[in-house]
Amino acid sequence: MYYMGVDLGGTSIKVGLITEEGNIINKVSGPTEVEKGPEGIINKIVDLIDEVCKLTGIKLEAIKAVGVGIPGVSRDDGLVYFATNLFWTNVPIGQSLREKLGLPVYIENDATVAAVAEFIKGGTKGTNNSIFLTLGTGVGGGLIINKKVYSGSHGIGTEMGHMVIGKNFYDCNCGNNGCWETFVSATAMNKHCIKLLEEGNKSTIIDKVAGERRLINAKLIFDCATEEDEVALLVVERMIKYLAIGIANLINIFDPEVIAIGGGISGAGNLLLDKLKKEIVKTIYVKNMNITEIVLAQLGNDAGIIGSGMYGKMQLEEGQN
Ligand SMILES: [Zn+2]
């Protein structure tokens, strides 16, 4: 028997047929076409599922469950409360897909399903309690407790990127000031870098983008930091300081065995991890128990498909409807 994993993003939809062990047999993708609205996107998902079935010669009846990772917040029954990048509010995607496919369908936040992928096959495999963080344009988080997904009483929990961590010089997209993602996302690094340049700090960064500030990105900033560029060093230092504070908060609350870091910023690799570990110990409460492992996520782009499919499996086995 098989599972279908659907990674619904703001720009593309990826669909893969998955084995019981979480291996991808085959996958397809297409553009999200946000302008076609929920109905158009749901039909596109059904078409892509058909396409994978045809490619692999597997019939729909051989699929035990479908899992869908969404860029938003959803209820257990698959109602998406909101998904900002899709311009969705209260979309019953779970119910629609169940009716169209005649299969069990489970909907979860994209960072949470990526946490499942890391737990099944990646950096947090073999643990009971783990956290996955994705540091990209924004910050997402997923939490596994006792080998099960925890997303709160109403499905709106573990929005770690929006824990308020200090006062910041710009507001979060959610309307609050001081959200963690405004300190530690790639967007946050770009904004801080541009602020320092506007204040007249000297840097090689501006030459490297030929004066085009919109071309500044986290990778460039990390690269310049290794070359001892002062602005880049300040940006990386501040980002890691706040990343460590947020992670220490998570350790103080959840005491996980492992925290895996993914998303574009994790491309900085050991440069990021080494500095981060030195900072975390300053803020954790039980300092002589600095034993939560911090690792890089392992699954990259396939985490969405694998995690969605495996989330479907976990929910089915737990007897969720
Ligand atoms: Zn926020």
TrEMBL record:
Q: Mind telling me which GO cellular component terms the entry cites?
A: cytoplasm
| Keywords (A to Z) from UniProt | ATP-binding, Kinase, Nucleotide-binding, Transferase
Q: Which EC number(s) does the record attach to this protein?
A: 2.7.1.2
Q: Name one Pfam family in it.
A: ROK
| Biological-process GO terms, alphabetical | glycolytic process
What Gene Ontology molecular function terms does this protein carry? Answer: ATP binding; glucokinase activity
The record's listing under PROSITE patterns reads: ROK
EC main class here is transferase
| Keyword Kinase set for record | yes
In the record, the note on similarity to other proteins reads: Belongs to the ROK (NagC/XylR) family.
Q: What is this protein called?
A: Glucokinase
Q: Which organism is it from?
A: Alkaliphilus peptidifermentans DSM 18978
